[in-house]
């Protein structure tokens, strides 16, 4: 995401090699000086809108705070739940969440 030519945040979306119609949000980050100004929400909504097309059925992510970690795991789960993500069972160390992208 770029605002007035400044890079303020990133969202990395990659293919899910286990699901031909699935995507993975591999990293969502807003630079510290710009946090808590709704850019995170904006960026996540932009990703959802951009990939809500017939080709893509679901977006998954692993809840794993990184960098300066302004939000802990529980806060991130609530953040993603507000965008329609639900938790999936996992044997992994970190929570796994999924959001359906396109339904006819
Ligand atoms: C997660 C992240 C992208 C959110 O970006 P952001 O621009 O700060 O988020 P927003 O301003 O859009 O805030 C969205 C909501 O998150 C919550 N939130 C954000 N910062 C918070 C903080 N410091 N403390 C508590 N809640 C917070 C709030 O519920 C907020 O909504 P509200 O302002 O209406 O109360 C940002 O915290 C970040 O870059 N974190 C470090 C990297 C990371 O851990 N990414 C997640 C990997 S799974």
Write the layout of secondary structure elements.
Elements: E1 2-3, E2 6-7, E3 9-15, E4 22-30, H1 39-51, E5 58-62, H2 73-81, E6 86-88, E7 96-100
Parallel strand pairs: 4-5
Antiparallel strand pairs: 1-2, 3-4, 5-7, 6-7
Bound molecules: coenzyme A.
Structure, described:
Helices cover 21% and strands 32% of the residues. It contains two helices and seven strands, in the order E-E-E-E-H-E-H-E-E. The chain has 104 residues and is α+β, with helices and mostly antiparallel strands. The strands form two sheets. It has a five-stranded mixed β-sheet, covered by helices on one side. It has a two-stranded antiparallel sheet with strand order 1-2. The mean pLDDT is 94. It has one domain (2-100): Aminopeptidase, CATH 3.40.630.30. Strand 6 (86-88) and strand 7 form a beta hairpin. The chain binds coenzyme A. Coenzyme A (COA) is lined by residues 28-30, 35-41, 63-71, 75-76, 79.
Entry summary:
With 104 residues, the protein is of the alpha+beta class.
Assign the CATH architecture: 3-Layer(aba) Sandwich
Count of discrete domains: 1
The proportion of residues in beta strands is 25-35%
The CATH class is Alpha Beta
- Molecules bound to protein: coenzyme A
Distance between the termini: 29 Å
Number of strands: 7
Order of helices and strands: EEEEHEHEE
Tell me about the largest β-sheet.
5 strands, mixed
Quaternary form? single chain
Low-confidence stretches: none
């Amino acid at each position: 995401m770029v605002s007035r030519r400044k890079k303020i945040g990133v969202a990395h979306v990659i293919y899910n090699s286990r699901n031909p119609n699935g995507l993975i949000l591999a990293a969502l980050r807003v630079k510290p000086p710009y946090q808590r100004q709704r850019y995170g929400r904006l960026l996540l909504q932009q990703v959802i809108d951009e990939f809500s097309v017939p080709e893509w059925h679901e977006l998954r992510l692993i809840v794993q705070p990184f960098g300066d970690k302004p939000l802990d795991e529980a806060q991130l789960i609530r953040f993603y739940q507000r965008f329609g993500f639900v938790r999936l069972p996992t044997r992994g160390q970190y929570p796994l969440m999924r959001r359906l992208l396109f339904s006819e």
